[in-house]
Amino acid sequence: MKLLLIDDDIALCELLNEYLGAQGFELVIKNDGEAGLNEALAHDYPLILLDVMLPKIEGFEVLKTLRQHKLTPVIMLTARGEDFDRIFGLELGADDYLAKPFNHRELLARVKAITRRIEHILASNKSQPLNWHDIEVKPHSREVLAAGHTLLLTGTEYEILNLLLKHAGDIVSKEQISEQVLGRRLAAFDRSIDMHVSNIRKKIAEHIEPERIKTIRGSGYILVSGA
């Protein structure tokens, strides 16, 4: 599987190319934001690894522009690992993030979680549509409709909403979402699930009121009818 890595750390790129290459992944490497964005727009990749601190065009701007054209899964690589970087990246539509310096095995786990999700999506294309009042998910086309309007969701957002829809009316814990969608255990103070759900809420709210995804403090989330 061919992945796109956009990072200006040459030594790290070489290490990841060797490490991920040994795991069956082929990396296309770009060392600045402009070249990386052009490559991401010109070709379809199953996953993009995107550094925040980049020459020419910073990573956040690359992601923002990319999201205007494509929903390619993106893992942000944040040098400082600050909450602002992580939250901002997720708000812009990143699927996941990893703070530098990171363990290569942790990166591999994140990469495999997303690529497994892609394989699962392809395998479930014949699944029947899921409906919950005015929200519908069509697995064969990955189309999501809210009151008849198409929602543009990232892969992670799609999988979270799909999970909530399968358990509509019941509480789905953050632990379930983290394990089944992100492919990892929920870490303390990890706000990624909250940000993904917030993004989904905003997109649904453009077409439907009142709010459909309720937060159950200390428990998780529940998809309600709104009636």
UniProtKB/TrEMBL annotation:
Domain Response regulatory: 2-115
Keyword terms of this UniProt record: Cytoplasm, DNA-binding, Phosphoprotein, Transcription, Transcription regulation, Two-component regulatory system
Subcellular location: Cytoplasm
Modified-residue entries (4-aspartylphosphate), positions: D51
Transmembrane parts of this sequence: none
SUPFAM superfamilies: C-terminal effector domain of the bipartite response regulators, CheY-like
PROSITE patterns associated with the record: OMPR_PHOB, RESPONSE_REGULATORY
DNA-binding stretch(es), residue numbering of this chain: 127-225
Gene3D superfamilies in the record: 3.40.50.2300, 6.10.250.690, Winged helix-like DNA-binding domain superfamily/Winged helix DNA-binding domain (1.10.10.10)
Stated name of the protein: DNA-binding response regulator
Source organism of this protein record: Pseudoalteromonas ulvae
Lineage, opening ranks: Bacteria, Pseudomonadati, Pseudomonadota, Gammaproteobacteria, Alteromonadales
